[in-house]
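Re: your question from the hallway

Yes, I did run it. Sequences:
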Amino acid sequence: MAGIVTGGCRCTKVRYQCTAAPVAVTLCYCRDCQSWSGGAFGHYVIMPSSAATIVGDVTGYDVQAESARTIRREYCCECGSPLFARTPHLLAITVARFDDPAPYHPTMAIWIDSAQPWAMIPDHIPRFARNPPLSSGAS
Amino acid sequence: MTTLSGGCRCGKIRYTCDTAPITVSFCYCTDCQKASGGPFCNYAVVPAEAVTVNQGATVHYTVEASTGNVVKREFCAHCGAPLFASTNNVFVITVGSLDDPSTVPPAIAIWLDSAQPWAPIPENVERFARNPPITLGA
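Structure:
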C-alpha cells in the first residue's frame, strides 16, 4: 500500500494525500471512538504524524480519551465528515474517507474492554484489551 | 417517559427520546461509510416526534444518497459528533451518541451490496442487499 493515496471529506472542501505506508489498520472500540463514529468502533489507518498533506480547513476538537491521552479529532466543519485523529506521534485517518477504502483490511482490534456487548469483533486479527504497543508512539 | 438519552462528545448538545427504537440498523451504504468514517453507520430508527433536543442545536449537511433520497445529517459544530440523520419519512439517532448504547443491539444489516470486502457484519441480524421495507415509511 505504499505510493500516493488520496482522500477527503464528503463535500470535497478538504482533500489529503499520503505517501507513507500504514503502520496498522485498527478497529478501536473505546467509548470516545464510538461517539466519534456514531457506532460500534472507529476504523483507522494509522500513519506517522507527518504522512499526510492536507488541503482545506479542518476543525479540531481536543478530547481526553479513556487512556487519559489528549487526542485531537479533526473533521470538516461544512459536512461534518470525521477525517483525522492525532496524538503527538501518530495520525489516524478514518478508513472510509479514503477515495478507495477497499485495501484497508483491519489488522488489529483495540480497546475491546470498552466494546458494546453486541459489537462485532473480527476473529482473525490480534485483540488488545486497551492500547496496543504502537500507540506508545515511537514508530 | 424518557427511554433513551444521549448527546455529543463535548456536551453542548443533549437529547432525549421517549420511545424505544422501531429497529436498529447497521447501514453499509457508501454515504454511511463517509458519514461514519468506517464501514457502516449504526442507527436507532425512531419516530422523529419522539426526539427532543433539550440543550444546544445541531448543524446539518444535506446529501443525496444512493437511492436518490435526500438525507439530512446532523452533527455538533463544536466537536463534530454525528447525532441524527433523516429523510422525508425516517429519522435515526446514532447509537454511539447514546448514553448507554449497550441496550441497543443491532437488528438489521442493510445496503450489504455496498459493503467493503473487509466489513464486519453481525451474524444474528436480518440482512438486506439494499433498503429494508422500513424506509418506505409508515
